[in-house]
Amino acid sequence: MDLKDVRRDYTQSHLSREELADHPIQQFKNWFSVAQQHPSLSDPTAFSLATVDAQHHPHQRIVLLKEVREDGFVFYTSYASAKGQDILHNPRVAMHFAWLALEQQIRIEGTAVQLTPEANSAYFYSRPRASQLGALASQQSQPIASRAELEARYHQLEEQYRDQPIPMPPHWGGYLIRPDYFEFWQGGRYRLHDRFSYQASAAGWQITRLQP
After folding, report:
1. Among the options 69, 129, 191, 209, which is catalytic?
2. pTM
3. Residue 180, CB half-sphere, CA atoms under 13 Å: how many?
4. CB 43 within 8 A of CB 99
5. Which one-letter DSSP state was computed for residue 20?
6. Which of 55, 66, 88 is nearest to 171 (CA)?
7. For strand 172-186 and strand 104-114, is the pairing parallel, antiparallel, or unpaired?
8. DSSP-based three-state secondary structure for 42
9. Which one of 30, 116, 163, 173 has the minimum C-beta count within 10 Å?
10. SS3 state at 163
11. Catalytic annotation present for 147
C-alpha cells in the first residue's frame, strides 16, 4: 500500500487571534457546541487520553468526556485499570480531540485528580442499569479467557441484583483533568494551518500563534 500520494488540502475555515476567547475553556465550549451539531461527528465527546506508566512508557486510549467544568474536564473509568495505575504513578496527562470533519484538533495537557466518592456515586447511579452492571462485571484491563466468561459474569450479576440497587464498584470513579496548556488547530490551505496555544501563567492565560 503506497500512502505517499494520499493527501488533501484543508479549506473549510481559518482561525485568527481576534476570534479566540480569552479563556481556553470558553474557546473549547465554542468549538464543542459546533462539533455537537455536525452531522458527520457521531462521537464529539470522544478524546484520546495519553498517560505514562511507572516505566516511562506512554499509552493512549479513547475515553468519553462527561463534563466540562470551569476548572477542567471530567471522565470516568476504573481506578484499577491500566490508565488508573498510570495516573497513580504520574498524574500528568494529555487529551486530544480530533474533529476531522471540521478540520479541527484540540490538544490539552494537565493534571488528573480523582473525584470525590459523592461525585462518583451521583454519576454512577445516573447511568443506565446495564452500564452499572457492566462496570461491576468487568475487572478493566485484566486478562479473561473468553467473551463468554465475561457475559456469564454480567448475567450472573444481573440475576443477583434483579430487585435491588447495584453496588458501585469501590475501584470505579471519575477524574478531573485540570488543564494548564491548550492548543487549538484549524486546518489551512497549503498546509499553513492555524495553531494557537494557551499557556497558564501567574498573569493568566497567555495566547500565542504557533507556526504549523
Report:
1. 191
2. 0.93
3. 9
4. no
5. S
6. 88
7. antiparallel
8. coil
9. 163
10. coil
11. no
Provide long-range contacts, Cβ within 8 A and 24+ apart, for 204-212.
Answer: 205/22, 205/23, 205/24, 207/17, 207/20, 207/22, 209/17, 210/183, 212/188
Distance CA 45, CA 106 (A): 12
Q: How far is CA 58 from CA 51, 52, 82, in A?
A: 6, 4, 11
Task: Report which DSSP code applies to 81.
Answer: S
- The angle formed by the CA atoms of residues 17, 20 and 23, to the nearest 5 degrees, is 125
The per-residue pLDDT string of the chain (212 residues; one tens digit each, 9 = 90 and over) reads 788 778 888 878 899 999 999 999 999 999 999 999 999 999 999 999 999 999 999 999 999 999 999 999 999 999 999 999 999 999 999 999 999 999 999 999 999 999 999 999 999 999 999 999 999 999 988 998 999 999 999 999 999 999 999 999 999 999 999 999 999 999 999 889 999 999 999 999 999 999 99
Q: What is the CA radius of gyration of the chain?
A: 20
Cα–Cα distance for residue pair 182/184, rounded to 1 Å: 7
Q: At 148, which helix (H) or strand (E)?
A: helix 147-160
Q: ∠ at Cα 67 (100, 103), nearest 5°? A: 10
